[in-house]
Amino acid sequence: MRAWGSNAFLLLFVFARTVYGFGGGCECKATGDPHYHTCDGVTLQYQGACAYNLASTCSHGSKDDRFIGFRILIKNKHPINQEDVSYARAVKVDFGKRTIYMDTAGNFKVDGQVIHDGDLPYESKRIIVNKHSEGGMERLVFMTDLGFKVTLDITRNERGDVIADIPPWYKNAGLCGLCGNWNDNPHDDYATKDGTIVENLSQPIRDALIADSLHQHDPELDLQECEETLANSPYTANTCTDDQLQQAQKMCDLDNRKPLKKSFKSCRPVLEEDGINYGGYIGACEYAYCSGIGHGKSTANLGACTVLKSLSDQCTEHGSKAKKKWKKKLKCFHLF
């Protein structure tokens, strides 16, 4: 249904800002080859070729009547003969009961219906999609009357940058995805889908773990090359043997290993009260151990100790303090 003229986007923007107000929202981006910029200011870099959850509602939600569930999927693809980079090629947005698809070939779909250029701007039931040129590139835009907006900028050779503008009532309301959870804590943006904190792993491994844990199977977006991406991912690869994994679990057992449990006993409730995923450090410690075991046990221990040191630093930052016994008992004392 084409209901509005060329000023439709301006009118919708002014209406949303005047009636609802959405200053202080999040602008999350996937740009370049690509770099992901989260709502809390973290930058992740990963060149996988799959469909990924860029941002979605996933938790308790909000009592705000403007809160509507959404999911933004982004499809990345390698250029021909360039396996070390990837670019956004398509975006799929589920917003409430509506589904919007747009890609770097300039195509639009709304609820499965192809929207032709002659039908733009297209408005239907409180949403609008449009296409225009700006700064030498083509821009595809989806927007709601509540100010929720997703933009796909087509730069060159059908390579895309994606910008998600998320209104402020989604802050602290339980978001997931590469945009992070938007809670003013950048540290927990370095977490896999299951909440495992991987902040202190090396950047390539860390960002691959985060992104590949957020891979989304979607028939409209999946690529054959995604299978190769996942096959080579540290998230899906088992780098520890069963015996080595037991060693990692023993070293990182914050819940039951006495030196760790006692050292962090007073800190744990402080972190959890401040919304820090304490349990996520267990998985991060195990990941670090297994990522280093191929280079020897000392390297594996160093990785695990580094994660535990990060947890200790978090305690200090939040006004608590971990006892120092764990460093000596776990042979980490000489590292710090």
TrEMBL record:
Keywords: Disulfide bond, Glycoprotein, Signal. Residues 1-21 form the signal peptide. This is IgGFc-binding protein. Pfam families: VWD. Residues 26-216 form the VWFD domain. InterPro entries: Mucin_vWF_Thrombospondin_sf, VWF_type-D.
